[in-house]
Amino acid sequence: MRRREVGSGMSSFCILCRALLLLLTLSDSLLHTLSLGIGINYGQIANNLPSPSRVAYLLRSLNISRVKLYDADPNVLQAFSNSNVDFIVGVGNEYLYNMTDPDKARDWVKQHVQPHLLQTKITCITVGNEVFSGNDTQLKSYVLPAMQSIYDALVSFQLNEQVNITTAHSLAVLANSFPPSSGVFKEDLAEYIQPLLNFHSQINSPFLINAYPYFAYRDDPNEVSLNYVLFEPNQGLTDPSTNLNYDNMLYAQVDAVYSAIKAMGHTDIEVRISETGWPSKGGPDEPGASAENAGLYNGNLLRRIEEKQGTPAKPSVPIDIFVFALFNENLKPGPVSERNYGLYYPDGTPVYNIGLQGYLPQLVSSAKINELPLLGLMLSVAMCLICA
């Protein structure tokens, strides 16, 4: 009788071991599946952020493998050495004039890109951010020459196949965005955008947009459907020219940019989203800025990314998206919302629950991260020894 009880106990223990091992395996698999395709903007306009090495562990725990910077911070790039994270690095607007000089562009690549490539994957350089939506015509004239100079520098170092060149735009470059099929760039920007598009086509680089449906809702909450901008169930809007139905504003914005590019003679340039997000907090004149809405927007967006969705006009091309942003940045100027786009507080605590269990865990130490595969291995060995 005692022998039977022992055998029964061992059998139960074996079942428990198998269940725990399966849970660990499925958790890792689920984390990998959910993280496919997502990129994150890592802004640093703050004085309370964790060190880059801690951030590297956080992103590793999330299995996020694409990060966009607004500069080429060597501390960040070094912290992510041998991490298999793809980086987009940036040249700030204040450096565009210098980058029009081929020698200075070559020096910049030699100093900020080339030294890191053996340990850190840099796949793209953004040259300026939202320049064409500003009022500085001189700065606008620097964008393309700066891009060309940096590209030529990459060619001289034989890096142009490894590192791409582009610039990011706000949707303010559009004169019209709905219906999407009528999307067109502002006339006064044609002299800058037409040659830029030609260059994109020549070097096969993407056209980046910073797209925020939140702005449309904030500016006209009585007319813009909240469900439409949050990816929540709604009847959508139909483009009368194409008869395509749009159940969310973000996809409509992307297709409007495709239409604007096509109107300038190009159908060979991919549109990617370099920024999108929703603030978890805002001032009294910022309707819709709340943790609940931010959770809905980013949670629904992540599910669509995981499903590899394309837009109605480009259903076979999964949209490429970088979410804004990793952390709240307490030194950003402007309204309250500008300091509250982060998925995380600086202490590593999630700002809100996006409804995907385990997808955004709290900041953990490297030891705890490394314990997970070790624990799985130990359980495997124990199960084999006990249940053999």
User: Using DSSP, what is the number of strands?
Assistant: 12
What characterizes the major β-sheet? 8 strands, parallel, barrel
Percentage of β-strand residues: 5-15%
| Helix percentage | 40-55%
Taking the alpha carbons of the first and last residues, their distance comes to: 22 Å
Spatial sequence of strands, sheet with the most strands: 1-2-3-4-5-8-11-12
Protein structure class: alpha/beta
How many helical elements?
Answer: 12
Shape: globular
What's the pLDDT, averaged over the residues?
87
Low-confidence stretches: 1-36, 355-386
Indicate the radius of gyration in whole angstroms: 24 Å
SSE topology string:
HEHEHEHHEHEEEHEHHEEHEHEH
Q: How would you describe this protein?
A:
The protein is 42% helix and 13% strand. It contains twelve helices and twelve strands. The strands form three sheets. The chain has an eight-stranded parallel barrel, surrounded by four helices. A two-stranded antiparallel ribbon has the order 6-7. Strands 9-10 form a two-stranded antiparallel ribbon. By secondary structure, it is an alpha/beta fold.
